[in-house]
UniProtKB/TrEMBL annotation, chain B:
SUPFAM superfamilies membership: MoaD/ThiS
Protein species of origin: uncultured Solirubrobacteraceae bacterium
Pfam families: ThiS (PF02597)
Name this polypeptide is given: Sulfur/cysteine carrier protein CysO
InterPro entries: Beta-grasp_dom_sf, Mopterin_synth/thiamin_S_b, SAMP1_3, Sulfur_Carrier/Prot_Modifier, ThiS/MoaD-like
Cleavable signal peptide: none
Length: 414, 91
């Protein structure tokens, strides 16, 4: 495989490609390092990708997996989600060109299937028989489903107050569902402790984290490929831990480095909910670290108060002349409606955050009229129905013409 | 005051494989200093420029000490401190 080692982002210490996520010298995060020097014929590599399966395994050469490609087509394939040109949204916001990367169109309806596919496949390669995770909900759905598809036992730990839809859409797969009385950061702390004692468990976002996180790069690979091997000018991405945001940047950079696309990494805009915005606050205050917060927001999938990749998200936003902004709960609800009404895409609260931040950037004039902008919609609206309850009016009528006409009397005829 | 310091797997090898150490001190900082006195090699792993490394979390009763008073957080008798890597979880 093209992956060569794990490398500490802080001190550069290298480790073999095993189940290890933190540098034993400085506790810094480990990241997968690759050798892509064998890629010399760009046209051939494009053909190889385009001839691959309609899922993330078409980017097998850029993922940290062994083995022949067809073997990895089994399980629950993620990716190849639609990139939709959103002219009505662009028009509403006074922008030139906006695209929606709709990652709700994954097997369990969020981008998490990308990361779990990679983590679960790598876990099997390393001999693990059990999957586990700390989750704000979407990851729970995906780990439980991948466990079912691959025939692996799974343990899914979630905050006890999670949205009912996300709880139901996890338990249905036959996992060991554990509701922890605490917030996500409490769940994560518990899982970090557990991962030290459960050596045959692959915690996808703890001891498998370097592999897991690589799955997010496929979002940018797909965007580039779907735009005809071009790079958008700007990408708006929600931030919880900051892992998705930074890996989208890394994905573009890798394709640039091997020559598959020309240009620079897009302007990267991060989106947070004001009720949990440690990264946006650090960006605003000019700091290079994030002060942990206690989350209080309807965007539960982004409610990580202690963001592991926060410092790197700050670096990336600054390096690309982007920003990290936040929006309040009211703006999040409005963002969900705006996306739904202009594109036909119904997103969860995290997508409301992303859309609302796009709107904010448009209103402040941060986006040039000639820019090609992509917003990454990470999850499905059906999972957070409470966010849109009572947000519109409807009509109840008797099954008669009279009753129907009466209900619409005075309403504007279109 | 007798304090228990629970170590993450990443540090256990350094201290002969044990999962926790006994410490003394009225604050988190003092307790950690007493650990360093007997296991000096832990200092560089946990500290940088006299403060906790940014990817090291210390919890008192499940609460991140950054939400309390940091290294100056007062410790009750018999307190248990848990050291964990910060780089985990998330999306």
């Amino acid at each position: 495989m093209a992956a060569k080692q794990l490398k500490c982002r802080e001190c550069g210490t290298e480790y073999p490609l095993e189940a290890r996520y933190v540098c034993s010298k400085c506790f810094g995060p480990l990241e997968v390092g690759y050798d892509h020097e064998h890629i010399t014929d760009v046209s051939e590599m494009r053909r190889r990708i385009q001839g691959g399966p309609q899922n993330i395994w078409r980017y097998h050469d850029f993922l940290p997996l062994e083995g022949p490609q067809p073997r990895t087509r089994t399980g629950l394939p993620a990716g190849c989600t639609p990139l939709i040109r959103a002219d009505r949204l662009a028009e509403r916001l006074g922008l030139g060109e906006v695209w929606v990367k709709n990652d709700a169109a994954n097997p369990t309806h969020s981008f998490k299937d990308r990361v779990v596919s990679v983590a679960a496949t790598r876990a099997r390669e390393l001999g693990f028989d059990t999957l586990a995770c700390a989750s704000t909900g979407n990851l729970a759905n995906s780990v439980a489903a991948h466990g079912a598809a691959l025939g692996m036992a799974s343990y899914v730990l979630i905050p006890a107050d999670l949205e009912e839809q996300k709880v139901l859409a996890t338990g249905v797969y036959g996992t060991n569902l554990v509701k922890v009385r605490g917030n996500y950061d409490d769940v994560n702390r518990l899982c970090t402790e557990l991962s030290g004692d459960r050596e045959n468990w692959a915690f996808v976002n703890i001891n498998m984290r370097p592999y897991y996180a690589e799955g997010s790069k496929t979002v940018s690979y797909e965007i580039a490929e779907q735009l005809g091997w071009e790079i958008p000018d700007r990408v708006v991405v929600p931030i919880a831990s900051g892992s998705l945001f930074t890996k989208i940047g890394k994905g573009f950079q890798e394709f640039i480095d091997v020559g598959l696309i020309d240009g620079d990494v897009p302007i990267m805009n991060g989106a947070q909910a004001t009720g949990c915005s440690p990264v946006a606050a650090a960006f605003r205050d000019g700091q290079d670290f994030c002060r942990p917060v206690k989350p209080h927001t309807i965007a539960k999938s982004l409610a990580i108060g202690n963001p592991a990749d926060g410092p790197y998200a700050l670096d990336l936003a600054r390096a690309t002349a982007g920003s990290i902004d936040s929006v309040n709960d009211q703006e999040i609800r409005a963002g969900i409606r705006l996306l739904a009404e202009t594109t036909g895409v119904f997103t969860e609260t995290a997508g409301g955050v992303t859309t609302a931040v796009l709107q904010k950037l448009a209103e402040t004039g941060a986006i040039g009229s000639d820019e090609r902008v992509v917003i990454v919609i990470t999850g499905e609206g059906l999972k957070t129905l409470d966010a849109v309850r009572h947000s519109f009016m409807d009509y109840e009528v008797d099954p008669t013409i009279e009753s129907f006409e009466q209900a619409f009397a005075g309403a504007v005829q279109v | 005051m007798a304090i228990t310091v629970k170590l993450p797997t990443q540090l256990r090898e350094t201290v002969g494989g044990v999962a926790s150490l006994q410490a003394e001190g009225a604050t988190v900082g003092e307790a950690l200093e007493s650990v360093f006195a007997s296991h000096g090699e832990l200092r560089d792993r946990l500290y940088q420029d006299g403060d906790l490394r940014r990817f090291v979390n210390v919890y008192l009763g499940g609460e991140d000490i950054r939400f309390l008073d940091g290294l100056k957080t007062a410790l009750p008798e018999g307190a248990e401190l848990t050291i964990l890597p910060a780089v985990a979880g998330g999306c």
